[in-house]
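RECORD TYPE: inverse folding
INPUT: structure tokens
STRUCTURE:
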């Protein structure tokens, strides 16, 4: 079985003919998309199109851009509603068996202002204006809401990982949009920009993953993430690796091909 990993497609910025050509010629059994598919009013149409053009099973999580022109609630509801036997929203799914030893789990995740200069970062992102739940919020409420979302996602993912470990899986693939460690979050110049870290990574997720990997040395944890658009393979422990895929508006890249 071949699983193709894609991230940060931003398909609302890509010409339809490019999208159709790319997916028609993509030869794969399954596709994993780690968020920023398009926007809230279009990601579900794109996912259905990808599913039809490739005839592959599509697994996905949502990124921050998938909430634009909508919000957390509206996008999550849409993502749950489009789920069918060939389209899986990982945030709303439990442990997925890929083969006897390998499983796939996922959570959208969120950044949590707990790295770099924290809430004192000078960076203001479009998320603050374009996500329904943030729009009329004071900055400190956005910070608190972000922390809550990061913690909830991290707890949910921990539950899924515990189930996967109990079930005896030795390779756990984790799909999430936001990298869990500063070392995995490079800016487009290939360096870590500390001012961007509070809005890029989920520290809560990183702490949880480090504890899980430390307590389960016989299990390999591989995180697939996006958001920063800058490719990196970051090894936190021997059994905990984070891969972040490259992205550019208007283009589609294959971030990885996994043969199972
Ligand atoms: Fe993105
Ligand atoms: Fe993103």
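DESIGNED SEQUENCE:
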């Amino acid at each position: 079985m071949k699983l193709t990993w894609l991230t940060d497609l931003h398909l609302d910025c890509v010409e339809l003919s490019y999208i159709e050509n790319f997916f028609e010629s993509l030869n794969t059994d399954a596709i994993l998309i780690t968020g920023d598919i398009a926007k809230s009013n279009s990601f579900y149409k794109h996912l259905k199109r990808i599913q039809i053009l490739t005839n592959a099973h599509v697994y996905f999580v949502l990124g921050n851009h998938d909430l634009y022109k909508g919000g957390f609630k509206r996008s999550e509801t849409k993502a749950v509603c489009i789920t069918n036997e060939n389209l899986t929203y990982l945030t709303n799914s439990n442990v997925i068996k890929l083969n006897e030893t390998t499983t796939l789990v996922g959570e959208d995740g969120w950044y949590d202002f707990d790295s770099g200069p924290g809430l004192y970062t000078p960076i203001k992102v479009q998320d603050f204006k374009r996500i329904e739940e943030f729009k009329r919020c004071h900055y400190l409420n956005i910070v608190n809401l972000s922390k809550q979302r990061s913690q909830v996602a991290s707890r949910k993912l921990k539950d899924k990982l515990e189930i996967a470990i109990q079930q005896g899986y030795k390779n756990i693939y984790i799909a999430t949009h936001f990298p869990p460690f500063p070392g995995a979050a490079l800016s487009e110049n290939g360096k870590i920009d500390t001012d961007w870290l509070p809005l890029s990574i989920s520290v809560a997720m990183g702490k949880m993953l480090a504890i899980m990997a430390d307590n389960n040395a016989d299990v390999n944890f591989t995180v697939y993430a996006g958001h920063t658009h800058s490719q990196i393979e970051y090894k936190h422990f021997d059994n905990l690796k984070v891969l972040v895929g490259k992205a550019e508006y208007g283009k589609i890249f294959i971030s990885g091909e996994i043969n199972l």
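NOTES: The two ends are 5 Å apart (CA to CA).
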